[in-house]
Automatic annotation (TrEMBL):
This is Lipoprotein. Pfam families: DUF6612. Keywords: Coiled coil, Signal. The lineage of its organism: Bacteria, Bacillati, Bacillota, Bacilli, Bacillales. It comes from the Bacteria. Residues 248-275 form a coiled coil. Residues 1-24 form the signal peptide. The keyword Coiled coil applies. InterPro entries: DUF6612.
Amino acid sequence: MKRKWGLSAAALLLTAAVILPGCANKEQAPKEALKSAAIKATTLNSYEMKSKLVINNLAIDAPANGESDSSTAQVLSMLKNADITIDGVYQADPMQTEMTMVLNLKGDMTMSFTIPMVMTTEKVYIKIPSIPFLPLPETVVGKFVELDLKKLAEQGGTEWNPGALDTQKMQKLSNEVLNTLMGEYDDKTYFKNIKPKDAALPEGVEAEQVVQFNVTNDNVKEALTILVNNALPKIIDIVSKPEYKDMLKIDDADLAKAKEELKSSEARAEFDKDLADLGKYLTINKFNVNTAINKDDFPVYQDLLMDIKVNNPDKGENVSLSLTASNQYSKINEKQTFTIGIPQGDDVITMDELQQEFGSIGSSY
């Protein structure tokens, strides 16, 4: 049963993997436009970004279970129609990113959190919000807690790996993986152009071409078969390249084991069995990813519409989930303005100082 749930999750990961930039050349077929865009994406050196995720529906149908049912109902009430927005600015050189995340929860316990964050090559700063049901010390609320990535790595007994934040190398890796992945899928089955005027683009987004990737109940089994049998072995080979393996800190033994498992007759037999039963566990009502491209061949807007149902007939559980997500990009490769900046002085508190503040609170009781 664990494998069957994993297979359903893999179907969603497959579709999520194609959220990437497109190309505005109308002469290109949709898949070729997306493959060209993967190369174009490596030239993204700075941009502003607006992202949003909205949970339109989340429902769990399961056998009655007393107190846990009440807790589950409360959580579902909070998450239904909940949304997360992120406004951010990024530049590659010198590496600096700032984001402001706003989480809005609905239902009987309506609340909102705003969390600004800043990232540089070696440090991450997170502003501590005021949370009604979590009594934080007043001395820390509003300050930025500083996470020294190099120091944390040393404390954890691991080697500091600045390459893990090499965004340009990550873009190159993404380029290779996405080209390989998309190369295995049929253009007519999974990709299509849609007219910009029919794509429900937000105001201010000017697109020359919109490419849609679509997975349905009719093609999800084929898509997973292609992913496991064709694409994944090639992707493992890409990740095994020295420059990527070192960046991701992936062990050779783990890579060899993953590839061996894909080849094993036992794993293939189990996969084929789970795939044959997939219809019992996963229903895709809708799963579309649209990428809008401007006249300069850059992605300026992406959106995802997902409406699925995951079932566990052995336990009588059904989970329905509907959500929408979007990313909007502007000021691409322009000089950026950082409104938060890099926190300094009294605005910053270290992890050790934060722990001391919590310790003093606990000792007062």
